[in-house]
Structure formats: C-alpha cells, structure tokens
TrEMBL record:
Residues 2-59 form the HTH lysR-type domain. This is DNA-binding transcriptional regulator, LysR family. Keywords: DNA-binding, Transcription, Transcription regulation. CDD domains: PBP2_LTTR_like_6. Gene3D superfamilies: Periplasmic binding protein-like II (3.40.190.10), Winged helix-like DNA-binding domain superfamily/Winged helix DNA-binding domain (1.10.10.10). Belongs to the LysR transcriptional regulatory family. Transmembrane segments: none annotated. InterPro entries: LysR_HTH_N, LysR_subst-bd, WH-like_DNA-bd_sf, WH_DNA-bd_sf. It comes from Allokutzneria albata. Pfam families: HTH_1, LysR_substrate. It comes from the Bacteria. PROSITE patterns: HTH_LYSR. GO terms for cellular component: protein-DNA complex.
Length: 290
C-alpha cells in the first residue's frame, strides 16, 4: 500500500524541483524527505527518482505516479468536503491568500460577511504574490487564494487546483499629471517604476513594453502600488497600474492600455463542495465589483 504522505512529498518534488524546497515547505529536514521518498520507492517496487550528481529528477514511473497522486489527493479533498458538509455549522481555520490590491479592495467586505454569517470560522489572511500561491495551496498553507494573471501573460493550468473566475479589470499607464505622454509608445523615453524581478507585475511590464517596441529604462523596483503612484506623482517615472490599484488623484494621469488583469479564486481540486470553501467563494463573488 502506498503511503499518502509520501505520495504528497513526491508530488511536491515534481512542482518545487528540489528536495531542499520540499523539506522547507513541510518543515522537514532534507534527509527526512529523502528517507521518505526512498521508502516510497520501495513500496512502489520501481525506481521513482534518478540521481545525477547532487540533483534528483523523477523517472518516467515517478512522473506517472505523480499524475495518479493528483487524482488521489483530489479524491481525498472531495471526501473531506463531504464529511464537513455532514457536520453542523461551519467551524475551523480557513487560510486565505491574496495579492496586495485584493487585500485592500476585495477581501474586507467578504471577511465582514463571512464573520457575520459564520462566526465560528477562524479566517486568516496572508498576502502573497501570485507566483507563490499554487505551491502554498498544494502544501496546505492556504485553503483559498485570490490570484490573477494578465491576458498578455496568461497563467498555465496548475495541477491539483481549480479556479473560479471573479473579475476582469483594465490596466493603465500611470504618468505624472503634467507629463506629455499620451500612449505607451511615448513612454520609451521615460524612466520606469516596475515590480521586483520574478514577480508577475515585472513580467507584464516587460512584455507590454516589448510589444510596443522598446525595453523600459527601469529606475525603481517597487511592489506596492500605493508607493508606485506616489513616485509617479513625484515625477520619478511612469508605471503600469491595474484598475483596482488606481484610486483617482489629480497629480497622476491614467492612460488606458490594451491589456486586462483577470482575478480568479483558487482552491485545491475536490474542495469546492467543502462548506467553508463554498462560503468563501460565495462571499468573494458577492463582494466583487459588478
């Protein structure tokens, strides 16, 4: 019989890439993870990992087992959801992840609604960049996540996760109120304020500028849109700003761009019928702008 906990470690190795990353995600030592994966290989009766120097990769059998593991874990989520639906009242911890502008705009009213309707739920919010959320959901650090992508940088389908569409919003080029810039192509000569390398906002800015025929001259790396707008207003550069993060202010002019940001509610596959997850989805959809 294959051990589900060990199967989860193998699945996480497929997504995270290294034993050290799996160990960190589960608060284990790398040695403990290696021992558990070796035991799983003995249970399976075939090699699941191939070692090349200090690196490890999944064998074809290991890859096939990961695919079955996704199905097994989704079935377990569905079983937990059905058992939870049979209990009386909603209780327990629900860990919600969200990107910064969603924490400010989408979450507050949803949290108020959930607290009023289900006071026994213990709601915990963590702010994360979208690139971090899939792994946080899979290793159960999150139960629900508000994540986004852009039509110019669409997200890939994530194994073991399901998505519920929430909103789409416009994307703007934010320029100082007195600037002569009227279009994205005009910003080739401007200094730019963009997100940190590795974030989705950084990727989207680079792609949009490249589509306009230039590479942005980056002056500042800032991830908080409130700070970005303050720097734009101070004449320190231009930036891309999504609609949710763009409150009207007289010292910043917003130029619409041919791009859309799309927000989805994510949860582990099989968990949609869990009463607490369903309640979160309902509250978030009710509080989203029309």
């Amino acid at each position: 019989m294959l051990d589900v906990r060990r199967l989860r470690l193998l699945r996480d190795l497929a997504h995270l890439g290294t034993i050290a990353a799996v160990a960190q995600a589960h608060s284990y030592t790398p040695s403990a993870v290696s021992q558990q994966l070796a035991a799983l290989g003995r249970e399976a009766g075939v090699p699941l990992l191939a070692h090349t120097g200090r690196r490890v990769a999944l064998t074809p059998a290991g890859t096939a087992l990961v695919q079955h593991t996704e199905t097994i874990l989704s079935a377990l989520e569905a079983a937990e959801a059905e058992l939870a639906a049979a209990s009386t009242g909603l209780t327990g911890i629900v860990r919600i992840g969200a990107f910064p502008s969603a924490v400010r705009t989408l979450l507050p009213s949803a949290l108020v609604s959930l607290a009023a309707q289900h006071p026994a739920l213990d709601l915990m919010v963590t702010e994360l960049d979208p690139v971090e959320m899939p792994d946080a959901l899979r290793d159960r650090r999150l139960d629900v996540a508000l994540s986004h992508d852009y039509d110019i940088a669409p997200a890939i389908a994530e194994a073991g996760l399901d998505a519920v569409p929430l909103i789409e919003e416009s994307v703007f080029l934010a320029v100082p109120g007195t600037a002569g810039t009227t279009a994205l192509a005009d910003a080739e000569r401007d200094s730019w304020i963009i997100g940190s390398p590795g974030t989705l906002c950084h990727t989207v800015t680079m792609r949009l500028c490249e589509s306009a025929g230039f590479t942005p001259a980056v002056r500042h790396h800032i991830d908080d849109f409130t700070a970005v707008l303050a720097l734009v207003a101070a004449g320190q550069g231009v930036a891309l700003i999504p609609e949710l993060a763009s409150p009207a202010r007289p010292d910043v002019r917003l130029i619409p761009l041919p791009a859309r940001r799309r927000t989805h509610i994510f949860h582990r596959r099989g968990a949609r019928a869990h009463p607490a997850i369903a309640a979160c989805v309902t509250a978030l959809r009710s509080s989203a702008p029309g």
